[in-house]
Design a protein that fits this description.
It contains 12 helices and 12 strands. Helix 5 runs antiparallel to helix 6 (174-208) and helix 8 packs across helix 10 (260-276). It is elongated, with a radius of gyration of 24 Å. The protein folds into 3 domains: 9-133, Response regulator (Rossmann fold); 135-213, Helix Hairpins, CATH 1.10.287; 221-364, 2-Layer Sandwich (Heat Shock Protein 90), CATH 3.30.565.10. A 5-stranded parallel sheet has the order 2-1-3-4-5, with helices on both faces. Helix content is 55%, strand content 17%.
Length: 365
C-alpha cells in the first residue's frame, strides 16, 4: 500500500460480469491494472494475494449490504494506511449514502456509471491515498531517526561506568568495580537489543515496500499448529525464556495457515510486550480457542497503566505527528511497530481489548 512509480492496482467487485468488464476496460486504457471479483469471497482472496491500491465495489451483491460487509472484512486486516474504497450503487437514498460514509467509504458512484466520472474519482482517490502514504513514510522515517538516541544513551552510559571503574581501581574498591561491571553488561545488552530490533524493523519496512518479496512471503504459507508455534516463539526469545515461569498456555487443537517464521516473530513480540507491560510476577495467559465463528489466539496480561485502548491503537497507526508522541514511551514504540509491520505482511486480523485492568491481544484466524 505504498506510493509507487507505476500505475496502481485496482480491485473491481460486482456480481454483474458485464459491468465489471465494461468499466474495467476504461481503467485499463488509462494504464491501471484491474483485478476482478464477482463476490466478496473472491475479492478477499485477491486482496490477500495482490497489492491493491483501491477497491471499487458494488453494494448489493450476494445480499443488499454485501459491499459494506466486504469493507468491514477488509478493514479487519488492519492495513495501515487503509485501502480506499469507492462504492457503486443504484440506491440514492441519504441513509444508504450516510451508512457508507460512516464506515469510511472514500466515495460513491451512482449506477449506471459514466466512464468519465469513474476515471475522475479513481484518479482523485489515488492521489489522496498517495499523499497519506507519503505522510506515513515521513512518520516512519522520523521514528527510525529517533531510535539511535536510545543507542547513544546506552553508549554514553558505558563510557560513564568505565570512568567510574578507573576511579574505583585507584581506590582498590573491588565491590564498586564489580557493581559497575554489571551495569556495563546491562547497558551492552540494551544496546545489542536496540540494534537488533532496529535492524529487524528496517528489514520489515523493506519487505513492505518490496511487492515481489511481500508476495513471496504470503505465498509461502504452511499448515501450522498454534500450540507449537507459540512454544517456538517463546524458545526463540532469551527475554521470554528468562520469564517462562510467568507464561501460562491453555493448549487446544488449532491448525491454521501462515508463514511459520513471520508468525513466530509476531507472537514473540506480542508476548514480550505482554510481559513488559504487566506487573512484576503476574501471569500472562495464552489461550487457543476454536469456534464456528472464528478461531483465535488470545494473550491476556494485567495492565495497570493509564494509557487507553485508543492511545495504544494510535501507537500502531502512526496516524499523525501529535499521536506519534506515544511511540516515545519506553518499550512501546519499536515493539508495537514490529507487531504492526508483521501483521501487515501476514495480512493478520488482530484486535485489542481492555477490561478493567486486563489487557487482551486477540489474533484471529
Amino acid at each position: 500500500m505504498y506510493l509507487r512509480e507505476e500505475l496502481s492496482n485496482i480491485l473491481f467487485v460486482d456480481d454483474n460480469q458485464t459491468i465489471i468488464d465494461n468499466l474495467s476496460r476504461f481503467l485499463e486504457i488509462e494504464g491501471y491494472t484491474v483485478f476482478k471479483a464477482t463476490n466478496s469471497r473472491e475479492a478477499i482472496d485477491i486482496y490477500k494475494k495482490e497489492s491493491i491500491d483501491l477497491i471499487i465495489s458494488d453494494i448489493m451483491m450476494e445480499n443488499k449490504d454485501a459491499g459494506y460487509e466486504l469493507y468491514k472484512k477488509i478493514s479487519e486486516f488492519n492495513v495501515i494506511p487503509p485501502t480506499p474504497f469507492v462504492f457503486l450503487s443504484a440506491r440514492t437514498d441519504e441513509e444508504s449514502l450516510r451508512d457508507g460514509m460512516n464506515l469510511g467509504a472514500a466515495d460513491y458512484l451512482k449506477k449506471p456509471v459514466e466512464s468519465k466520472n469513474l476515471i475522475n474519482v479513481v484518479k482523485r482517490r489515488l492521489e489522496q491515498s498517495n499523499k497519506i502514504n507519503q505522510n506515513f513514510t515521513s512518520l516512519t522515517e522520523a521514528f527510525r531517526n529517533q531510535l539511535p538516541d536510545k543507542m547513544k544513551n546506552a553508549v554514553h552510559g558505558l563510557f560513564g561506568f568505565s570512568e567510574m571503574i578507573d576511579m574505583a581501581l585507584e581506590e582498590n574498591e573491588i565491590g564498586v568495580i564489580k557493581e559497575y561491571i554489571q551495569k556495563i553488561k546491562t547497558n551492552l545488552m540494551k544496546l545489542s537489543d536496540h540494534i537488533e530490533r532496529l535492524l529487524n524493523l528496517g528489514s520489515l519496512f523493506g519487505v513492505l515496500q518490496d511487492n515481489a518479496r511481500l508476495q513471496e512471503i504470503r505465498n509461502d504459507f504452511d499448515k501450522i499448529d498454534a500450540y507449537e508455534v507459540i512454544l517456538l516463539a517463546i524458545n526463540s526469545s532469551k527475554y521470554l525464556m528468562n520469564h517462562k515461569n510467568r507464561i501460562s498456555i491453555l493448549k487446544n487443537e488449532l491448525i491454521f495457515e501462515s508463514n511459520s517464521v513471520y508468525i513466530s516473530m509476531f507472537i514473540k513480540e506480542v508476548i514480550e510486550n505482554a510481559i513488559k507491560f504487566s506487573p512484576k510476577d503476574s501471569i500472562v495467559e495464552i489461550t487457543i480457542t476454536t469456534a464456528e465463528d472464528g478461531n483465535v489466539i488470545k494473550i491476556k496480561n494485567l495492565f495497570d497503566d493509564k494509557i487507553t485502548k485508543e492511545e495504544i491503537l494510535r501507537s500502531y497507526s502512526f496516524s499523525s505527528s501529535r499521536e506519534y508522541k506515544y511511540l516515545g514511551t519506553e518499550g512501546i514504540g519499536i515493539g508495537y511497530s514490529i507487531i504492526r509491520a508483521l501483521g501487515q505482511i501476514l495480512m493478520l486480523k488482530w484486535d485489542i481489548e481492555i477490561k478493567n485492568n486486563e489487557f487482551f491481544f486477540i489474533i484471529k484466524f
